[in-house]
Design brief:
Layout: H1 9-19, H2 42-50, H3 70-88, H4 90-93, E1 110-113, E2 120-122, E3 126-131, E4 134-139, E5 145-150, E6 156-162, E7 165-170, E8 175-180, E9 192-197, E10 204-206, E11 211-214, E12 219-223, E13 231-235, E14 241-247, E15 252-258, E16 261-270, E17 276-281, E18 290-291, E19 295-300, E20 305-310, E21 316-320, E22 333-338, E23 342-347, E24 351-356, E25 361-367, E26 372-378, E27 383-388, E28 394-398
Antiparallel strand pairs: 1-28, 2-3, 3-4, 4-5, 6-7, 7-8, 8-9, 10-11, 11-12, 12-13, 14-15, 15-16, 16-17, 18-19, 19-20, 20-21, 22-23, 23-24, 24-25, 26-27, 27-28
Helix pairs in contact: 1-2
Length: about 400
């Protein structure tokens, strides 16, 4: 088969069947198809038909010798990826397939945490929540509260799990970076100060070597060290009002606006020293983004939209908004998370919007009765959302 020509449909069936890593069994018939002469291909054809990867060229024909154009090839490969990811995910292993909202209105699926929870992060086993002046820890599988790591500042905002430690930004002026060491037997040890960073920090991310924070008018790049007072590099060139940070495996990206100007938000691509490599125009009020392995999803708070940016070239590949009829319930979106298949966005007006990452489509919007969603993360199976409470408590809920 020439590499310059489309492959026959029977060859593509063998390739896709092999990629799925599932056993096929020989059969004397080939499902609904009457035109498959070489029955050695039949197990593969039946498998991708049963999985919905191909429907054939008609109800009874597969056209095994026909070439596959590039557009059909794209559809086959995308469907194959979807089915493979679904069957091998932790959701599949734990038989947790639902995408609807739990019964928040009946106080089910939620865990009580401390006042004013903001951002949160999962480590695969537990969920860590930045609350007012402390870090709360919750067991993801059961929702059990595992205690609080208290630092008494009252301004804990961003949260990061990295290097077997938990880090949080303290939104003071100047800001602080604190570190908590997870402890066994539910005996939390209070966080320790490790670095002075820029004023009023919020977002936080890790690039595999250094910790980055987004501050009121700067970025801080923190180099871990023994002891406290870690070295900090302050980045101000081209930086105005950074908010969210996300690392794509090669570069750091930051959302930022222009002081006092609506409609001028961008997503910045940064090199390892904090230099601006690219500026991508996104929606008004760009806040806390997430990376899905290919694209960065940017919730835009003020214009009720969601911008999807491809990291390979910085192109905007999709905008979910009322203008193009694909708003999917977005209403002052604040933060996004990715669970390996779907992207969940919190809307502070009282709902969650769910999107399918593979084909950039909206799945639906779900209300959170009586709760105001804020941060969101994934524990590898479920999403967790922080909800604002009153002056003494808040909640996080499993979705």
């Amino acid at each position: 088969m020439s590499l310059n020509r489309p492959p026959p449909r029977r060859s593509l069936a063998v390739i896709l069947g092999a990629l799925l890593f599932f056993p096929s069994f020989a059969s004397a018939v080939c499902g609904p198809f009457t035109d498959v002469v070489n029955l050695s291909y039949c197990p593969f054809i039946q498998e991708i038909y049963n999985l919905g990867i191909t429907l054939g060229t008609s109800a009874t024909t597969y056209a095994p010798a026909a070439n596959v154009p590039r557009d059909q090839m794209a559809a086959f490969l995308a469907r194959n990826f979807d089915r493979s990811a679904s069957r091998t995910s932790r959701k599949a292993a734990l038989n947790q397939w639902w995408t609807s909202t739990p019964h928040y209105d009946q106080n089910l699926g939620i865990t009580l945490v401390y006042d004013n929870p903001k951002l949160l992060a999962g480590d695969g086993a537990d969920v860590w929540v930045a609350t007012a002046g402390q870090i709360d820890r919750v067991r993801a599988s059961t929702g059990e509260s595992l205690g609080s790591y208290v630092d008494n500042t009252g301004h804990t905002y961003g949260i990061l799990v990295a290097m077997n430690r938990v880090f949080a930004t303290e939104g003071t002026s100047p800001g602080s970076l604190v570190m908590a060491t997870p402890s066994p037997f539910n005996t939390p040890v209070n966080p320790t100060f490790v670095a002075t960073i820029g004023d009023n920090p919020t977002g936080i991310a890790f690039d595999g070597n250094k910790i980055w924070t987004a501050n009121g008018a700067s970025l801080s790049i923190v180099t871990p060290a023994s002891g406290v007072d870690w070295a900090v590099t302050s980045i101000t060139a081209g930086i105005t009002e950074p908010l969210g940070l996300v690392f794509d495996g090669h570069n750091m990206w930051a959302t930022q606006g222009t002081t006092g100007v609506h409609g001028s938000y961008v997503l910045l691509k940064l090199n390892s020293a904090g230099g601006i490599l690219q500026s991508v125009a996104v929606g008004d009020g760009a806040s806390y983004p997430i990376f899905d392995g290919n694209n960065i999803w940017v919730p835009n708070f003020f214009d009720n939209s969601l911008t999807v940016v491809r990291v390979s070239d910085g192109a905007v590949v999709k905008t979910f908004s009322a203008d193009d009829g694909s708003q999917n319930g977005l209403s002052h979106p604040f933060a996004a998370a990715f669970d390996g298949q779907n992207v969940l966005v919190t809307n502070v007006t009282g709902s969650l919007s769910l999107f399918k990452a593979a084909d950039l489509t909206g799945i639906g919007s779900f209300p959170t009765p009586g709760f105001t969603p804020s941060g969101v993360c994934s524990d590898g199976v479920n999403f967790w959302v922080s909800f604002l409470g009153d002056d003494s408590f808040g909640y996080i809920g499993r979705f």
